[in-house]
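Predict structure. Chain length: 540.
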Amino acid sequence: MDTTAKATSGKQLRYGGNVRISEDPEVLDEKTGEIRRLERGITRQKEDVAALAERLGGEIVEWYEENDTSAFKKKRIRLPNGRSVWRVIRPEFRRMLADYEDGKIDGIIFYDLDRLTRQNRDLEDLIDLVEFFKRPVESVTGQLDLRTSGGRTMARVLVAMANKASEDTARRVARARLQKAQEGQGRRFNAKRRPFGYNEDGSINPAEAELVRSAVRRFLAGESWSGLVKYFQASGIPPVLARFWYLSSVRQMLVTPSVAGIAVYNGVLRKENEEGVRRSRYIDPEATALKDAAGRYIMTPWEPLVSVAEWEQVVAEQARRVEGQTFTGMGTKKHLLSGLLRCGCIREDGSVCNRSLTGSVRKYKSGGSTTNYKCPSKVQGGCGGVSRSTRKLDALAEDLLFAHIAANAPASAEPDTDASTEQDPDAQALAEVRRRLEKMRQGYGAGTVSDETFFATVPALEAQEKKLKAAVKKTEQARSGEALLRRSPQQIRKEWEEASTAGKRAILGQYLQAIIISPSAARGSNFDHSAVRPIWKAIG
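Prediction complete.
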């Protein structure tokens, strides 16, 4: 270890301390009810790094802590030119290199080389700086001088060996996890981290399970995610690992395959942005569900909270909302029919006004008030010629809806078994492409398929797989939408009575395209029903 720098400079060296641990488990703090990390690994490292700095006659002036940070796993980054590269994302490591280059620290002390880096790219960036600035880089566990040719060569060899060890470990762990998932052992129950809806022994928790099932019914009836969060909070049943319910936790619980008892493997439901930050944007939950070679879901040994069909409907409904294909209560908090009502007045030029009616409140000096749906004034782009009582029009719309449902109810509310995914040509083609891909990958791993054949064939097959997967997903979403419309009048009535205003609006949106409101022929307090004309969607 270099102790000459202090003697020649006559000042105490300012070191930066780098400490890292790949995985730091989360625990529930029983006093605060919050989730925190143990941080035991970096605490021990910091003690040893600080002790070495003191022996070298210096001090740690800045810590670069990388708690629960991998030095091996890469993330995809999109470059300004549109190309992609894969990099290990370590903001603190990069900040340390910048401070070393800018002279904010006189040297670096780390615990061990495999804690410092497991990627040659990161090591070479550090070596470039050390070769130019000649400042010390010390380790607690051994002498490794990057300022010498021998030290740099040894560091490169050690990092390459550490990288291979990480690859070997990742491969063994991934294979073991896949095997456990296939055997239905991918999820364990314990007192602190049990899944919501289950007891510690894996049995169903009746109150929690019913809350999840009710939430699924509400979501399929059109309830928004924020509305479901309020519903969970109002239930008085707390989440397992937090003090409050959050939108992200409620959404993940309902869209993850495990809620239907399906085994999940490598199931990351959040998407990372270009900086590697995890965002709560859900992408293709169906892709996280484990399937066998025939494309059937692999089920876990514990009882599901909802059926597979209900989970698929939730996933399809969420996809429709993301794509803007579903009429929901978003942006409308007060009035049931806002966005559905259209003015049917004829303008002076013979055209139909067709402006959307909005809810407005008129207050009286006496303290009372009335609420009406009104066409905007001419100044606002409407004609101002139509106004209806919200109470009366809401009640009429409900009566019209259920009369329409009763008149067009399907003979059977059961799903069409003939229209299964297995008979879908796209699904069959997808299964064949996946079979060929699996055969190519197995052959390449066994050495029976050459590099030229593998890399010439696999990209085209993967492109076909992506295209067919999108087609199958579109078909499943359409089938799920048809299943919603095949519900019995009794089911829809129950959903209506349980739903909030946003949920009722979504139910209306499943059947109604619009409601045309024409000028009333009645006078006084009489309500002209003939001036209300619903435009229904086709039930197929």
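Summary: The domain at 4-182 is CATH 3.40.50.1390 (Rossmann fold).
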